[in-house]
Specification:
heterodimer, A: alpha+beta, 6-stranded antiparallel sheet, 11 helices, B: alpha+beta, 7-stranded mixed sheet, 5-stranded mixed beta barrel, 23 strands
């Protein structure tokens, strides 16, 4: 079928062609407001065809696999007006061996998943019946195959297992909601530990304490840090460099962060969510340093941007969905840990704020570096102790300055958040705005 | 299709069964800077079966219409597994058989891909020939034509044709490490014409991006804020629309208490509604994805909470009227409570009335996005100007507004007479279903005591 699409495309005078296909099988079990709400099964698949004809790129996708001719027609119709290609599909290459699937995930029964969800909801209910608990247990696998007219032909299977646990406590004029999750390519994850972590967050957030506007030292939890990495990710994107909108476009080899700050993209991480042997364009995966000891070392590229900039592709051509063309994205973002710990950061803090969840921090202009987010969940610290929750205030940093000039320490311990692996970070100052 | 689906849902095995099949044809194109970034055509075909057994739902989605009987059995088995003892009543709705065809002004399917490319390319050229410091652009256009088939075990059968088109045109100005953006958005459920004739607005967006380069970062603090109609609409959507969605409130007794109908939430000048009945709006919808006819649903009328956005399940649970707000992003997802076109009703104030007496404030225009957690909301302004002594003053940048929903609603002290329909690209996200086409129409509004993040 896929070979036939390539043949059809070449038969119609395309210089080259590429077929990407993905088939996925997902079973989420969802609890909402203390109750098992929905069990789903989705079995979805489709094909994306990319061709280069007269130097121009054509792209079409379908989930209706019965008519290959129509898919080729659509791709050729697009190629007539398509973007200039300027790149070659990669040929066969040695691919790294990665751990991105595990049979245990496939063996998990729906009944067992229901039990895991029920256990998490039960623990939250036991902590406080007023907390409305939610939980999800996910089991999924997908098969990806990519072939192209340069002779690349490879496939892989990934599995995904995820546990989500959270709750909402509503009092008049005071909502407290929090959640946590673990996700992995293997069936690891302890529902009890996850629920205990969520309960601990509720315990710290039950009492609201006042805070006044000003500058404070801040500990970003791994969750908090994940909300502040948008500008970094936007600035290292090869396309933003190519388009000359990345403020870091001239900064390769320069210090853009404090010497303790090191960032990798690691598609080879064992059982990571973004772990793959090759990217969605057939470029072999490799561990790529992005910021090493504060120095900007690499931008990330897909085939097209790499060709336009005469650089090597970095294996970061990713499809956001079957119907999306490859664009530049990370596989598994890893911020290296430091020598400190959350406990030590807290202990040394006279007066400061712990920022765990931000709201709306993504919504500004990423190239300005400015992060402004409502502190959805954060705590006041006095003399080394969390005294309660801070609310109705805005957290503001310029992330370029924050990770360069205000970075005091990183924790040794790191937390996996989907495709990210992040430490706790202590900043010497961040702006807090609240009602006067 | 009709016989196939109607027969299927009569095969039993659940308290309630429904099937949805969808075929969509999508065209997407986008320029980034000088280059055509992407252009593609997609055929999205698939369906789903949803089964309800004793309050528990099972849901199966698929691409191929083969083996529907065994998919149905799987949905029923999953529903039985998630069933619970207290059951669940779906609010009753009339059994409908209907065929909804498109009422188009200018049909994007009548235009060739070349026409669409040329039009978007011309906007891109305006930006790129504007000159420094305009450095780059981002232009995108999408259209989607859908045929949707729905059948339920209650006997309802609906075929609907739908159209959604939208796009955005962004100019980017860069100087040193500072990049600023100006944006024009458009959207419609019936008229390609909204994408045409935007040349003047695109030039305006370039000028604004350039002006923002020199604007200082706003000083954080508490301000009286005048929101333009676009941002006021996003406020209504983020701050109050999501809170009015029936799913949480129907199951969370303490939230239901906070959201008791009849509670005073704002001044009598404030009315907010959500409607599926505005032709042309991206949130226009004749029937929702449970086959329920849509309506104009008041949420706040003259400051008082009077309604919410229901699916059949949430309405049934609360003993309220279903409102036609159960929507699914596409065949891959079950319907959940969602907004359509969320509006603040026109008031009486003029813009000058709003400026009067504001010693130090902000005028915020348009938005790059927003978010809510129920009680608190936040959104970023696309552009912003200081108000000094009742007059518009210099532009400022990186303005993010935040607040407590309930306090902020009470602090809306003026509603403008200039109700403005506005459509934009993107849409609403909830759970993993987004972007769903929604609209937000509003007049200018003035809010006291809004917290703004920024430099100290």
């Amino acid at each position: 079928m896929l070979e036939k699409l390539i043949e059809l495309a070449l038969g119609r005078r395309c210089q080259s062609a590429e077929v990407y296909t993905k088939r996925s099988h997902q079973t989420p079990v969802e609890f909402e407001n203390n109750r098992l709400k929905l069990i789903q099964t989705t079995v979805l698949g489709g094909v994306a065809l990319r061709v280069i004809k007269d130097g121009k790129v054509g792209f079409a996708t379908t989930t209706r696999l019965s008519d290959p001719g129509l898919l080729v027609d659509n791709a050729l119709a697009v190629a007539e007006f398509g973007a200039e290609g300027g790149f070659l599909f990669p040929g066969p290459a040695a691919l790294p061996t990665v751990k991105n699937h595990h049979d245990d995930v496939l063996k998990l029964s729906v009944e067992a998943m229901v039990e895991q969800g029920r256990a998490m909801v039960g623990m939250l209910n036991e902590y406080d019946p007023k907390v409305m608990a939610m939980a999800q247990v996910h089991r999924a696998w997908s098969e990806v195959r990519l072939i192209n007219s340069s002779g690349f032909d490879a496939d892989y299977t990934t599995t995904t297992y995820a546990l989500v646990c959270g709750g909402e406590l509503v009092e008049p004029q005071n909502f407290l909601s929090t959640w946590d999750y673990v996700v992995s390519a293997r069936a690891e994850g302890d529902p009890g530990a996850l629920a205990r972590g969520v309960i601990a967050k509720f315990q710290s957030g039950r009492i609201n304490v006042p805070v006044t506007s000003g500058k404070y030292p801040v500990i970003l939890t791994p969750e908090g840090l994940s909300e502040c990495l948008g500008p970094l990710m936007a600035c290292i994107n090869g396309q933003a460099v190519y388009r000359e909108i990345s403020p870091w476009r001239e900064c390769l080899g320069e210090e853009v962060a404090a010497p303790s700050f090191t960032v990798y993209d690691d598609p080879l991480a064992d059982y990571g969510v973004g772990t793959v042997p090759f990217d969605d364009e057939g470029v072999p995966s490799r561990r790529l340093p992005i910021i090493e000891r504060g120095v900007l070392t690499n931008f990330i590229y897909d085939l097209r941007t790499a060709a336009a900039m005469r650089k090597s592709p970095t294996g970061n051509g990713k499809r956001a969905s079957l119907s999306s063309q490859p664009t530049i994205d990370l596989s598994n973002l890893s911020v290296e840990g430091g020598n400190s710990s959350f406990e030590a950061m807290l202990k040394d803090m006279q007066e400061g704020i712990v920022v765990d969840r931000l709201m709306g921090a993504w919504s500004g202009n990423p190239y300005s570096g400015q992060i402004n987010g409502n502190i959805m969940l954060g705590y006041k610290v006095e003399n080394g102790q969390i005294t309660g929750r801070v609310k109705d205030c805005m957290f503001s940093i310029n992330s370029f300055d924050a990770f360069k000039d205000h970075l005091v320490a990183l924790s040794k311990e790191r937390k996996s958040l989907g495709s990210m692996l992040l430490p706790y970070v202590l900043l010497s100052e961040a702006g807090i705005s609240t009602r006067s | 299709m009709k016989d196939l689906l109607k027969t299927l849902v009569q095969s039993g095995g659940a308290d309630y069964l429904e099937v949805r099949v969808e075929e969509s044809h999508v065209t997407r194109l986008g320029f980034k800077g000088r280059e055509l970034d992407h252009v593609g055509k997609s055929i999205e075909f698939g369906g789903n079966i949803r089964a309800l057994v004793n309050g528990g739902w099972g849901f199966v989605s698929f691409n191929e219409l083969e083996d529907l009987e065994s998919r149905l059995q799987l949905a029923c088995a999953q529903a039985r597994l998630s069933a619970h003892t207290e059951g669940c009543r779906l609010a009753s709705v009339p059994v409908v058989e209907d065929y909804v065809t498109l009422d188009v002004v200018k049909d994007p399917r009548q235009l060739t891909l070349a026409d669409k490319m040329a039009l978007m390319g011309s906007y891109n050229d305006i930006i790129l020939s504007y000159g420094r410091p305009i450095q780059s652009s981002n232009v995108s256009y999408n259209d989607k034509h859908t045929r949707l088939y729905f059948a339920s075990s209650e006997g309802t059968y609906i075929e609907q044709e739908k159209l959604d088109l939208s796009g955005s045109i962004t100019a980017m100005a860069t100087r040193g490490g500072n990049t600023q953006m100006g944006r024009v958005g458009f959207g419609s459920s019936r008229d390609f014409g909204v994408a045409e004739g935007l040349e003047g607005k695109v030039r305006e967006a370039c000028r604004k991006a350039v002006d923002l380069l020199d604007a200082p970062v706003v000083t954080g603090g508490e301000y009286t804020v005048i929101c333009d109609p676009r941002l006021a609409g996003i406020f209504a959507h983020e701050a109050f629309g999501h809170l009015s969605e029936g799913d949480d409130v129907s199951e969370n007794p303490s939230l239901a208490q906070v959201m008791t109908l009849g509670t005073q939430f704002g001044l009598p000048i404030l009315s907010i509604y959500d409607s599926g009945q505005d032709p042309g709006a991206r949130g226009y919808l004749r029937y929702d994805d449970e086959g329920v006819p849509t309506e104009k649903t008041y949420l706040i009328r003259e400051g008082v909470l009077v309604g919410r956005l229901h699916s059949r399940r949430t309405a049934g649970r609360m003993g309220e009227r279903p409102t036609g707000n159960a929507r699914a992003l596409d065949y891959r997802f079950p319907p959940i409570c969602r907004m359509r076109n969320t509006c603040i009703e026109a008031g009486e104030a003029t813009f000058d009335d709003m400026l009067e007496g504001v010693k130090l404030g902000l005028y915020v225009v348009s938005s790059f996005g927003g978010q809510t957690n129920g009680e608190m909301f936040t959104f970023s302004a696309g552009e912003a100007y200081m108000i000094r002594d009742g007059r518009l003053a210099e532009p400022v940048r990186d303005v993010n507004l935040t607040g407590n929903v309930f306090a902020t609603l009470r602090n809306i002290d003026m509603v403008g007479c200039d109700f403005t329909p506005h459509e934009s690209a993107g849409g609403c996200g909830k759970g993993n279903q987004g972007p769903l086409p929604t609209s937000e129409w509003a007049p200018h509004i003035r809010i006291r005591n809004v917290v703004v993040g920024g430099k100290k």
